[in-house]
Specification:
four-stranded antiparallel beta sheet, 11 strands, 0% helix
């Protein structure tokens, strides 16, 4: 079993920044962030391995940065130059022993 606890969502103006955090209950090789906007399917935002290899959705490249602190089993998502279309519920995700685990989700709203 893996527990994921997220924090850091909220309301931000277009062009602004937010930082999300996700603490895992154990060391996980690959962790990531997904998001789901109203009426849309959940989509990948970014992933990172324990070695630091990263992968980003095209829509966030150059604006979002995923990072992790392996000693704290924590992954971060720094979101800059945010756009209204970034509005969604953001979920932390981790794969472990063949299963996918999800955080509770945190709302991110980009609006003036």
């Amino acid at each position: 079993q893996v527990q994921l606890v997220e924090s850091g969502g909220g309301l931000v103006q277009p062009g602004g920044s937010l930082r999300l955090s996700c603490a895992a209950s154990r060391s996980i090789f690959s962790m990531g962030w997904y998001r789901q906007a109203p009426g849309k399917q959940r989509e990948l935002v970014a992933t990172i391995t324990s070695g630091g290899s990263t992968n980003y959705a095209d829509s966030v490249k150059g604006r979002f940065t995923i990072s992790r602190d392996n000693a704290k089993n924590t992954v971060y998502l720094q979101m800059n130059k945010m756009k209204p279309e970034d509005t969604a519920v953001y979920y932390c995700a981790a794969g472990w022993a063949g299963d996918m685990y999800w955080g509770q989700g945190t709302q991110v709203t980009v609006s003036s």
